[in-house]
Amino acid sequence: MKAIVHLIVMMIIGLVSSQTSAAKSTDWALIIGITKYVHPQEREVKIEYAAKDAIAFRDFLASPEGGRFDSENIKLMIDDDARRENINGGISWLGRNAQNSGTVYVYISGHAVLSGNNNLQLIPHDGSIDDSVNSLISIDEFIRHLHEQVDSRNMFIFLDVCHAGATIPSQYFPTLPGRSRMIFASAAKDQTARESRELESSIFSHYLIAALRSAAKQAPDGNMRGSDIVDRVTAQVLAQALKEHHVEQRPIAWPSPPPNLVLGRRVTDRSPSLNDQQMGPPFDLHVPPPAPPMPRSSRQGLLWGLVGGLGVVTVVGVTVGLIAGLHPCLGCLEKTLTY
Q1: Phi, psi of 134 (to 5 degrees)
Q2: Which domains does the chain have, with CATH numbers?
Q3: What is the per-residue pLDDT for 77?
């Protein structure tokens, strides 16, 4: 009998574990922020907040407003972790894990340079503009590899680098039936992405995260609508850059998001991910209230009934009974039944 009880407990633990795994997020994120560089970029304006902004974006996604991402679903690369080899490996990581997933977010903040043929290149932590072929990363190629290797329902790329608009429109990031795709660039091709001492952040990243968080909190259904966020961020970035630096910085979204595009959603515990969400109206997030817990007397009755009838019931019957009333007490079940 002891062996049978042990087997039953193991079966129930397996069932409960599988239910927990099924509830995990199907959304993934690759986040890159580079403030420190191996090779001094004397021709570039120094930046102070790229790594900090990347951490802030990670923290937002881990929050209820950002979707409460599981920690293993986020790969964060800042400063010396954001080497060329590691960044390219991040695409492979998404390719292995995010197939048939809900939403993939890619966030990049750091230095980028625009070559003579309008090829925008990201400078990794170990990159040098004096050796662009071997040490820089073409953002067009980066996006192409994302498209080829990651088959997610939705993919949103946020580029907080100078000249980010050079990637728009992207022939490597086509719109696909039943798929949502968007690139949100921090500045036009001929513009610099500015930081703010007042905000202690990149201007674009500060207002992007603030707009996403505000939209998630204020929307009755918790959905962050793309068009509202793009309009809000664009207006705020334009105003702050003009106020603080007396220059124009105009973020650009491509393709222009329709009103029903959802960039993300607020969750309270483990609400549905965006796996079933695409370029259409949001699905119903109503969740019925949980059933009231079984009274203690009922649980005790179930336990003694199980002990008395263990020799005549089937394994399936025992499993059902345990799942229905005893899974909170799995830790003590086997000990109780073997006395």
Answers
A1: -100, -15
A2: 2-19+293-337 (no CATH), 27-269 (3.40.50.1460)
A3: 98
